[in-house]
Amino acid sequence: MGLLDSLGGGAPGMRKPTFEIAFGGGGGLGGMAAAAAGALGGGGDPWSQHLLVVTVDAGMAPSVDVAEVVYAAGPDAPKVSVGDEGTIKLGYDDDSNELVFTGKVESVRREIGGVVRVTVTNGAAALARLRVNAAYDGQTAGDVVKDLAGQASVDTGSVEDGLKFAYFVADDRSGGWGHVARLARNSGHVAYVNPEGKLYFAPYVEGSPTSFKYGQDLLALEVAEGTPALGKATAVGEGAAGSQGQDAWPWLLKDPSPVKRESGSGDGERLIEDGAVRSGDAAQKLAEGVVLAASRAKLTGRMLVPGAPKVAVGGTVEVTDAPDDALNGSWMARRVRHRYAKREGFTTRVDFCAAGSGGGLGGLL
Predict the structure, then answer these.
(1) Rg, Å, the chain Cα set
(2) Residue 232 phi/psi, 5° resolution?
(3) How confident is the model at residue 190, as a pLDDT?
């Protein structure tokens, strides 16, 4: 990725980048303006005159999303307080701005050089801080995720069931976001907080892709094919629910075969023992989920493009017309970084991966 790192921010096209920052008032330093909008080189509102850089960095669990707003201090500068809630929108003057982040001010740092740095986080940070010791009887992974989100006061969007547990324990050795990440992997799901600030926990669904044309929309592109850490997984659970009915889940077994399942093929085999898995069906889903997560390492890459505010984590990106067929294809966006700066302009960096198992570079979907 050295080429991309050396590029930093790329020059945008002739379109004029715009932004909107809106946060609620707070105590201490005074409330931020209810809404502020600006554009490069113009506007009379405080944000347009004082903003220097906005960076939004979001990814799939267990990555914690963060946004940083940097602006010049002064008597007319925006006033920001820790705890202020609001949104960040980015776009261009010839179109409506797109919501890219919803969150709460985590910290405000002032420097002697007259620069103010505001850090904003969302529900991923709230779940990462959450520590619980809880037991869930006869519930699904989706039920557990909903409960954790409720305890962390995080709104939920699409949350699907995933694995069914006879008995599941979440302990405080891991934060709630770590539990969500593991439940997503084991269920064959993806988990992230969307730009609206809502938790998504469900299988990846290929949607209408955001397309980038080689020689026109790309500042840099790298695609790498690799060998997954494993090709086959064997999941072993506990209890006799697989052969004696659900009421037998607490029974101890001398022969684990009723709760032992396999998935995948090829080099690299892993044995996964999970006491929360108490049925053959759950063991099968666990093995499949682990293999699916590993298979996404078959293809990874990164692209740097002029600001693309419609690209979000969990979305689909597409590259077309590249002279090397290995660079063409559709992929799942697993990490997105939007950066708006008055000196460098507006760019978007997307880390992507294959959506699932399959062969080839560009056609893994």
Answers:
(1) 23
(2) -140, 140
(3) 94
Pick from 7-11, 113-117, 150-154 the range whose average pLDDT is largest: 150-154
Element (H, E) at 284: helix 280-295
**For 181, phi and psi rounded to 5 degrees?**
-65, -45
Considering only residues 279 and 118, tell me which one the structure prediction assigns the higher pLDDT.
118
Please give the full DSSP string across 181-200, using - where no structure is assigned.
HHHHHHHT-EEEE-TTS-EE
Residue 158 CA to residue 74 CA, distance in Å, equals 43
DSSP assignment of 1-70: -HHHHHH-SPPP-SS-EEEEEEE---SSS-PPPS-EEEETTB-SSHHHHHEEEEEEEEESTTSPPEEEEE
Under 8 Å between Cβ of 103 and 197: yes
**Are 345 and 8 spatial neighbours (Cβ–Cβ below 8 Å)?**
no
Q: Are 235 and 228 in contact (CB under 8 A)?
A: no
Q: How far is CA 65 from CA 29, 100, 130, 195, 201, in A?
A: 25, 11, 15, 10, 16
State the residue for tokens 């397309």.
Answer: 211
Q: Distance between CA 282 and CA 268 in Å, rounded?
A: 22
**Given the structure tokens 């991309």, which residue do they identify?**
4
CA distance 146 to 154: 9
Using DSSP's 3-state secondary structure scheme, residue 125 falls into helix
Answer whether 137's CB lies under 8 Å from 167's CB: yes
Consecutive H or E run containing 244: helix 241-244
Locus of tokens 């600030």: 197
Report the half-sphere exposure of 251 (CA within 13 A, side-chain side): 17
**What's the predicted TM-score (pTM) here?**
0.83
How far apart (Å, rounded) are the C-alpha atoms in residues 190 and 159? 10
Residue 193 burial by Cβ neighbours in a 10 Å radius (0-12, 13-18, 19+) = buried
**pLDDT band of 164, cuts 50, 70, 90:** confident
Pairing type for strands 210-213 and 316-320 reads parallel
